[in-house]
Write a structure and sequence with these properties.
Length: 318
């Protein structure tokens, strides 16, 4: 499994390099959609580690995305010009600056995850969902009231560093990291905590520790996704990271199948493309979109891409 994941990681990175070389010939609209697919894959796969593999229910992923977006944008805008001037500019300097900005966004998002997760991960189910939902709203209000970051008008003038290579390289890295974690000896603890916390604790595992590791990892990659998003859209607005955004990511995980990485990737692709496919019925597309989601939830509550055998096994255990 891990050997195949490594091959896939290097294959996707190599392919994204080739795709970036040809990106100048891609229609800007299609490029926007493709970039959106890559960012949503990062968000959905990272949330799947928390909600799917570890059995938590977080509604704060948009908040971590916002932290990463604002942090990486601030690094590029306020620190970037001095950094580039010192290194003499050029493509290599810009790439290094962008990498530093993304890491800063991911790290600060992970710290935010620690601050939220450490006191709240002893909670379960609806209580944890409420806490993470509150965190997402608090983050949005905080950024809306910081004048240096644009306040309610948002932060503009972000350099457009995001391209196909960066997006799909980090998407591949996210998939590889989550796959490596859950298939390692240590990672079996995530599955044990998901299946039965009491039994896992009786075996000597610390459920809170495993939850926190999953939470920090998911928050880190959500911050990376936020940085990629901000450097592609050139501007970010607190309203773009609201409760609805968190729900969109959760729906991708649920439709793909909780704890099913391949299914979550497919769901992220479909749910990114579906609003675009429904554009011909622009006045009704969100109604149609919502109805399709309701039908899928009713007919496939275990997830659209969960294998049949696994779905039957889960029904027996519940």
């Amino acid at each position: 499994m891990l050997a195949r994941a490594k091959i896939l990681l290097f294959g996707v990175i190599s392919a994204s390099l080739g795709a970036q070389a040809l990106s100048g010939h891609i229609n800007p609209y299609f490029l926007d959609v493709i970039i959106g697919i890559g960012i949503n894959i990062i968000l959905a796969v990272s949330l799947n580690l928390i909600n799917g593999y570890t059995g938590q229910f977080s509604l704060g992923h948009a908040g971590f995305m916002a932290v990463g977006a604002y942090t990486s944008a601030a690094v590029s805008i306020f620190f970037g010009p001095h950094f580039l001037a010192r290194l003499g500019g050029g493509g290599a300097a810009i790439a290094l600056l962008f990498f530093i900005a993304l890491l800063a966004g991911g790290t600060v998002a992970a710290v935010a995850g620690l601050l939220v997760g450490a006191p709240s991960l002893r909670l379960k189910g609806d209580y944890l969902a409420i806490v993470t939902l509150g965190f997402g709203e608090i983050i949005r209000v905080i950024f809306r009231n910081i004048p240096a970051l644009g306040g309610a008008l948002g932060l503009n003038g972000i350099p457009g560093y995001t391209n196909l290579f960066w997006v799909f390289a980090f998407a591949a890295l996210t998939v590889y990291t989550v796959t490596a974690m859950v298939n390692s000896t240590y990672g079996k603890g995530f599955l044990a905590v998901h299946d039965n916390e009491v039994a896992a604790e009786a075996m000597g595992l610390n459920p809170t520790k495993y939850k926190l590791v999953a939470f920090l990892t998911g928050a880190f990659f959500a911050g990376i996704a936020g940085g990629l998003y901000g450097h592609f859209k050139f501007s970010i607005d607190p309203k773009g990271f609201d409760f609805i955004k968190s729900i969109e990511i959760v729906v991708m995980v649920i439709l793909g199948g909780m704890g099913n990485t391949v299914g979550v990737i497919i769901a992220a692709v479909i749910l990114t493309l579906l609003p675009e496919v429904l554009r011909p019925v622009a006045d009704y597309r969100m109604i149609v979109y919502s109805l399709l989601l309701i039908v899928l939830m009713l007919t496939r509550p275990q997830g659209l891409f969960t294998p049949r055998k696994r779905a039957l096994a889960e029904r027996k255990t519940t």
